[in-house]
Amino acid sequence: MKITIATGIYPPEIGGPATYLRELVPVLKKKGWKVDIITYGEPRKDVIAIPREAMFRWWKFYRAVLNSARDSDLIFATDTVSSGFPASKAARKLKKRFVLRFVGDFAWETSRTEGLTDDPFMEFQKKKYGFQIEMLRRLQRKVLSRAEIITVSAFLKSVLSKWGFKDVGIVPNIAAPLKLPGRNELRRKFNFDKSFVILNVGRVTAYKGVDKIIRMCAKLRKDIPDLLLVVVGDGPALEEARKVANEEVISHLVRFVGRQDDMETRKFMKAADVLVLNSEYEGMSHTLLEAMSVECPVVASDVCGNPELVKNKGLLFEYNNMDELKEQILKLYGDEKLRKKLVTKALKDLPKREDWEKKTLAVLGK
Predict the structure, then answer these.
(1) E strands in the chain
(2) Pair 162, 114: CB distance under 8 Å
(3) Which of 177, 231, 237, 275 is the most buried (most CB within 10 A)?
(4) Strand locations in 10-62, DSSP E?
(5) How far apart are the first and last CA of the chain?
(6) Residues near 354 by Cβ (< 8 Å), separated by ≥ 6?
């Protein structure tokens, strides 16, 4: 069996689709499948890569998928537009089976990034907008209408249902097992020995609220004098976050360590005392799954797909409500039994790799 996979990013790049494919591709090859990868990036030997700065890059991506998929049994896309749109065109041209993995609303994410709206995710779903946003929505839904859709959470399935897409399968994300040093060794390595470490991981954007976490930590240090905030990631709001740390006179208590690979990020998670995610939107967070997999307690905003993953396995707070976040962190700081209870429950309830493989192969191998 042959599959052509269309994806915006691929390992060693860092991000959700790359993390997912790092796990999926070896499984497919082990089952004897022939796998072609079409992605964006610099030329390389293991995949067909279309330069991101290329003129007519979607057309070139489409041609690459078309050429690869002539003898494929199906085309599989990991997003709705950057790879999904040209892949859907190729699938239609070749009359091939087209499967798409839906992990978020492209129209909302693009509109927020481009400054076309400030509306939160759920508010965005209820409104009509101007020409540009509605065109993004139309493009996304056109691609979805041509696909067999799988998604990663009941929350995202409910979003798709409201858009009129009812026949959607759920295959949750998993956290790939990694062999890591012991926690005490990692705490010594990162010089965490005498600190209560609050970790934030992810792209530093306005809707991740890292600046607000920093301001909260300025107040929290009165209750937790050994506090240390570690920020793993980069992004357009990074300089604003640094500025806030200086304004609050806690730059010595905030470490910006930049973007890290999966192994190093997981080491930070294992060494930390709590991971905080103040995100306005998550479909099913890889970050939360990975933290849970290394027994790091999690505190996450009570939005979108987070409650589905965190309820009874971590603590939740209202998005951007820093008083509530402070209370939740203090609960964990003062209650070691609670921390152990939550990480034990999280480990037990994490999606199992064997179930993930079985469900994924069942969908792709129809």
Answers:
(1) 2-6, 34-40, 48-50, 74-77, 97-102, 148-151, 168-170, 196-201, 227-232, 254-258, 274-277, 298-301, 315-317
(2) no
(3) 275
(4) 34-40, 48-50
(5) 11
(6) none
Q: What is the DSSP string of 268-280?
A: HHHH-SEEEE--S
Q: At what angle do helices 286-293 and 262-271 cross, to 10 degrees?
A: 60
> What residues contact residue 15 under an 8 Å CB cut-off, 6+ apart?
9
pLDDT at 15: 78
Tens of pLDDT, residues 122-139: 999 999 999 999 999 999
Task: Write down all domains in the chain, each with its CATH number in brackets.
Answer: 2-174+353-364 (3.40.50.2000), 183-349 (3.40.50.2000)
pLDDT at 265 exceeding the cut of 80: yes
Distances (CA, A) of 279 to 118, 201, 229, 306: 14, 11, 17, 9
The DSSP output letter for 207 is G
Which three-class secondary structure state does DSSP give residue 312?
coil
The helix, strand and coil proportions of the chain, stated in percent and rounded to the nearest 5, come to 45, 15, 35
* 24-69 pLDDT per residue, tens: 999 999 999 999 999 999 888 899 999 988 788 999 999 999 999 9
Residue 196 corresponds to which amino acid?
F
Give the CA dihedral 345, 348, 349, 350, nearest 10 degrees: 120
Q: Residue with structure tokens 């402070």?
A: 326
- Cα 180 to Cα 32, 121, 248, 269, 335: the distances in Å are 30, 36, 35, 11, 26
Residue 131: how many other CB atoms lie within 10 Å: 7
d(CA 140, CA 306): 24
User: Which residues lie below 8 Å from residue 305, measured CB to CB, with a gap of 6+?
Assistant: 152, 153, 155, 156, 282, 283, 284, 285
Cis peptide before 12 (omega within 30 of 0): yes
Rounded Cα–Cα distance for residues 107 and 138 (Å): 9
CA dihedral 52, 202, 302, 168 (to 10 degrees): 40
